[in-house]
Amino acid sequence: MAMAKLGFGDVKDVFRDPDIAHVIPRWLAKHGTHPVSVFLFESGGEFSDSNLQELAPDILSQTQQSFPLLVTHDLAGTVWTNRSTESVDSKIAAGAVSHGIRIVRSHDLARFASASVANGWNDSEVATELLTPGWSRMDPPNTQIVGVVRRYFPKPKVISINLNDTGKVSLGDTLWVRLRNALTPFQVQSMQQSNSAVTLAQTGCIGVEVELTPSQVVSDGDVFLDMNVDVAPSAGRQTSALRDLLGEFTGGY
Question: What is the DSSP string of 123-144?
């Protein structure tokens, strides 16, 4: 399961009695010396602030000695193409911080676990991301978001990226892109802007060659600049995240 792949030890399934109405942890785990209680929320609708306010008292009452991690599998049954642009509600994020609860969507956890295994992220990077209260999509460590995927072109294999106001990309940079089931790095070996080859781009839209397929790319998938400038780019090995990492719980794909 994902927690074990991310370096959490002593991961134990918790027996769940369907007759018990109050919230109970789905898994118990440890990260180093930090005990973690993992709760699972499943719903056909989108996770809401009212869901958090309803769950928080029960979660906190059971986690005085452990860190509460809430994994949400919302929009269950919705096809992935309609889930690719899921936003993170700022009110829920603020509420999670105030309650001291970390919230993560199931498929973001799967992507993060897959990338962690493929790229050898260390335990401290994983712990910093997962054991910090709040709610956000799981980002690669030591990166800066520079834009989002706008479109995929199959011939040649190119993604267009809308850079944000602070986005700055140069030839030779390593970018990470949030794909359907993965977080994958690649090195910028050619880049165009306004139909002209460029070596540096700041804001606007750029086209970058990639070794990706249409089924991997999602519109509005986040694009990050790798800040580890002295580290050689990872090969971005692909791993099968969902069944292998989450066991019986496969998320919404």
Answer: HHHHHHHHTSSEE-PPPPTTEE
Residue percentage of the chain with pLDDT more than 70: 78
Q: What is the DSSP letter of 35?
A: E
User: Which backbone phi and psi does 10 adopt, to 5 degrees?
Assistant: 55, 40
Lowest model confidence (mean pLDDT) among 4-8, 9-13, 104-108, 232-236:
232-236
Contacts of 232-235 spanning 24+ positions with Cβ under 8 A: 233/174, 233/185, 233/186, 233/187, 234/118, 234/119, 234/174, 234/185
For 3-13, letters b (16+ CB in 10 Å) and e give: bebbbbeebee
Reading the block at residue 140, the tokens are 């690669």
Token code pair at residue 106: 């199931």
Highest mean pLDDT among 102-116, 121-135, 160-174: 160-174
| Burial zone of 15 (CB within 10 Å; 0-12 exposed, 13-18 middle, 19+ buried) | exposed
Pairing of strands 158-170, 143-153: antiparallel
